[in-house]
Amino acid sequence: MKLNAFPLNYFKQIWTPSKLFAERRELNVFQLFLIIVFLTSLMIVPVSIHYATLDSFPMEGTFKESYQLVDDSVVQKMEQMQITDGQLEGPAFEIEKAEGIVGAGLSSDEVETALKADNALIFQQDAFLLKEGSKSIATVPYTKDVSFHQAATVQAFKAELSRQWLIQNQAYLTGVFSLLLFAVILTINVLLVAGSALFLYLTKRSRQTSITSYKESVSVMVSCLSLPTFAAAIIGIFRFDIITMISIQTIGMVLLLLLVYFKTQFRDAAFKKESIYTETI
């Protein structure tokens, strides 16, 4: 396999500042865009891992009014319930409040009536229903280890509701956040590369640089973005913080560009002189 074929030529050139600059003409526009997409995908790996391994999710942001229906009276009523293999059994109840309705063990007609309220939390035999204003009604099946009927506090009860909802929706949540952040980070990367490449391209007005086209500038900036992105993705896997990851990526790109300038002064002559000196030694 030829080492100058894409993508091997890309991976070959990013490891040293001198090689990065010297081989800036090796990649075409389409390949450069593919690399940006690839680097963005690496940044999304920690995002997917983070949301796929969550064990709790702040549901108050999604079902704020419905969650406020849970109070001590609801917890006390649910303590009388039993859940065996994901099946709810116990005395039926219905609590009407100004904000909405909480009920358990209701008949089909009673459930239909309760869901006409602005907000509702209904515990059925094998699932609970969440209604929040005009949003679609969420149906969350019980898992075999469901334990909100054993919760001693409102906080513990809400935490178990959140856990049950997360188990049901974790794949969807992971996909949505991954796609959303992919779009955001891809936009940031494109703007970052395009903007910094423009400033680098303007140096061609000086006779002290060997950069002759905007594509060459983009190639240099994409290569400068590569190693910092690898580092940000690895760090993000062990300590997820998207702001920190983007900061590492951006600052690393700038530092690597400065290192390229220090090694080459953006001139091919400096690189060739260094190569000749190395071979002589």
TrEMBL record:
Coiled coil: none annotated. The lineage of its organism: Bacteria, Bacillati, Bacillota, Bacilli, Lactobacillales. It comes from Pisciglobus halotolerans. Keywords: Membrane, Transmembrane, Transmembrane helix. The keyword Transferase does not apply. The keyword Ribosomal protein does not apply. The chain crosses the membrane at residues 29-49, 171-202, 214-236, 242-262. This is Maltodextrin utilization protein YvdJ. InterPro entries: DUF1189.
